[in-house]
Amino acid sequence: MMPAAPVTQPSDRSPSRRRARLLAVVALTAVIGVAHAGAQEPAPVTDGKAAASAQERYRPSFESTLGTTTLGSYGEVIYNNELSGGSDQIDLRRVVLFLAHDFNDWISFFAELEHEHAEGLEAEQAFLEFRAFEKATFRGGLLILPISHMNLYHEPVYFHSVERPDVDRYLVPSTWRELGASVSGELTDWLSYELQLNNSLSLTDSDGELKLADVETEGIREFRQEGRQALFNDIGLAGRVTVKPTLGLDVSASFFTGEADQSQAVEVDDAEAKLPDARITLLEADARFQRGGFDLRGEYAMVFVNEADELSALAGETVGERQQGFYLEAAYDMLRLITDTEQRLNLFYRYSWIDLASDVPTGFAANPESEWTIHSVGLAWLPIPQVVAKLDYEARDDDAGSRPDRLNVGLGYAF
After folding, report:
1. Where are the domains of the chain?
2. For 174-208, how does the pLDDT look when each residue is reduced to its tens digit (9 = 90+)?
3. Do 94 and 116 touch, CB atoms closer than 8 A?
4. Is 149 helix (H, G, I), strand (E, B) or coil?
5. Angular region, 190: left φ>0, alpha ψ -120 to 50, beta rest
6. Is 36 exposed, middle or buried (0-12, 13-18, 19+ CB in 10 A)?
7. Nearest to 253 by CA among 343, 133, 172, 163
8. What is the largest CA-CA distance in the chain?
9. Are 157 and 381 contacting, i.e. CB atoms less than 8 angstroms apart?
10. Distance from C-alpha of 8 to C-alpha of 70, rounded to nearest angstrom
């Protein structure tokens, strides 16, 4: 059941607008990257033609008496230029290696290994898949949660902006994965589903320390366990339903719910205090329409945090009882106006609004950095469907002035 949140008066926030000055952009070099065969999104629908399935688009890398194996990968390099004199940054954001192996016609293994910020290596996915029934596929292992289109299909060739939308970073933590099991399938040509049981979120880290310090500005993303010796005292439940009523249109609704205390205790004033049974519930809806060069997208997400008053007292700062946000985006392939080509040059605009403290516990005030808006405009050029070069400008506003306007450049690929 959705936790009740007290009615509070919204804070009077009137973001100031800033004019950006023009700065030079450095040239970027892409790195070898590799992509996601088994979980890749179908190619965009164009001119009413159905998109090819992943099985039709990707060829096995090699075959043997042990089965068929597929290799792939995706990656991106990103340059951020803060236009208020802040520190500019260039980053090998990620290189992800993909491996899939079909043992036979109904049992497969999938894995993704992610290398972020030119350091470290961690598993993004690793699971066995059993296609035992026509309308029910079973998976077990480290799984991406079926919440939000971006969480499921996050390769850089599948979204227009350089950075992933803030709604899918702070409300729906991007590439959110946990250990568990799922069942999914297509009930009809226009209706599909997925239901997943997993280890829930955790309010404490591996050392037993509270992870509440940045909830006001980072949301629940730090509560993810991501398969790292995850506490499993609390179970999470996630689900998603997708409807495709007409060619080019898909509409989805998804949810997650689970307690995050994991039966842990923390030290407060030299005494041990048991964490409250803090249930976190996330509700999300998204829609996409692609046809004739147009690409329209939208998403709305809400997060409810139960026992936020006790958590705020423990943390010594505000933990919002309700967090919410949305974005609306429109794009068009400009090359259609001048030539007949398979290349795409997508001009896009997106408006985003995020508030990580829509409702706050009595006696606590919202951080002025917890609500912000973003106007994003830019270009994404795809010379081939597997490679993209991006340029965009973000006008970002919050009451604290902590998010300066930004110019972004990116190179990405997926194959």
Report:
1. 133-414
2. 999 999 999 999 999 999 999 999 999 999 998 88
3. yes
4. helix
5. alpha
6. buried
7. 172
8. 71
9. no
10. 53
Q: Indicate the SS3 state at residue 94.
A: strand
pLDDT for residue 268: 77
Alpha helices in 14-157 (DSSP H): 54-57, 149-152
113 Cβ contact list (under 8 Å, min separation 6)? 96, 97, 99, 121, 122, 123, 124
Count of Cβ atoms closer than 10 Å to residue 184 Cβ: 18
Predicted local distance difference test score (pLDDT) of residue 317:
87
Angle CA(301)–CA(344)–CA(90) in degrees, nearest 5? 65
133-414 falls under which CATH superfamily?
Answer: Porin (2.40.160.10)
**Residue 299 in contact with residue 168, Cβ under 8 Å?**
yes
| DSSP-assigned letter for residue 262 | T
Token pair 């000055």 in the structure block, residue: 21
> Hey, which residues does 373 pair with through a beta bridge?
353, 397
Q: Are strands 107-116 and 89-102 parallel, antiparallel or unpaired?
A: antiparallel
Residue with tokens 């400008």: 393
Q: What are the tokens at 57?
A: 């688009």
108: tokens are: 């497969």
Note the pTM of the prediction, 2 decimals: 0.83
